[in-house]
Amino acid sequence: ALAQAPDAAGFFSTRVAVPNATSAVPVLAVPNALAAELLGGGDVRATFRVDAALELVDTVNVIATTRSGANDSVVLVGAHLDSVPAGPGVNDDGSGSAAVLELALQMARDRVALKSQVRFAWWGAEELGLLGSRYHVEHAPADDRARWVAYLNNDMLGSTNYNQYVMRVDNASTVVPERARRGSDAITALYADYFERQQLPYVHNVVDAPGSSDYGYFLLADIAAGAVASGAGVIKTQRQLELFGGIKGAATDPCYHKACDDTDNISPVALQNNARALADVLQHIALADDARALIYGNDDGVNGTAAAAAAGLTAVRHSL
Question: Taking the model in full, what pTM does it have?
């Protein structure tokens, strides 16, 4: 299979989910310019040399849950630990991992009196297809998953040519259950309220599931999710330049999935804004007297809808 890059800059992330190892189909991703040449008509002869390896490796999730807070109400906060082989991944996703760790350390130091437990998670193998977060969602015992109120994702918080994104779940999604969409709207509103109180501009990035980061399988399991981000390979528009400054026509992270994603590839301003927004939203949810009512409303029912969650996970498996 030949896959064409989805945007003009030629950025492409291959995430191929295979139901079983015997049905694998080789996939080669190419930039738009080459795809246009190959598909432009006429006789085309192309030779590709692919240097690849197939191996089985172990990966881990790192999980920590607060002792304080009601154990029937759990707010999850996560980021992914891995990077692509091409680069060290300081922004993608060292920035998110560091923000989550610093938040956990500060909450422990200040002995915050939580109303809901907070579960901090650092996911493995996100770049290979959201494997760590998917495993956590799909293998959690039913009684544990019933306690989950919301998931807050943190992926690429410090892009140097940043846009300030607040995630919004596509209300037209056919795979995300209605309850998760409704709850995600409430989380989006909390993030938006933070930036408006700080008089900081933001734009929405509309997502579906499983999507491109670790929020995806939470949504499919009928768990509301929210996130902030600063951008990856998307090209900055004139309107975004007016809102956030930076360089028009350049990627929000010029070092996305490249060797230069090192310690020089961080905007302290973007990282601080996103980390503070995360802390504010987590505080609102985890300190609420009834976090479930805050996110889903008073008519939520008993600990979510397992049938809708199962339907969402089944639908996406069939779509892969």
Answer: 0.84
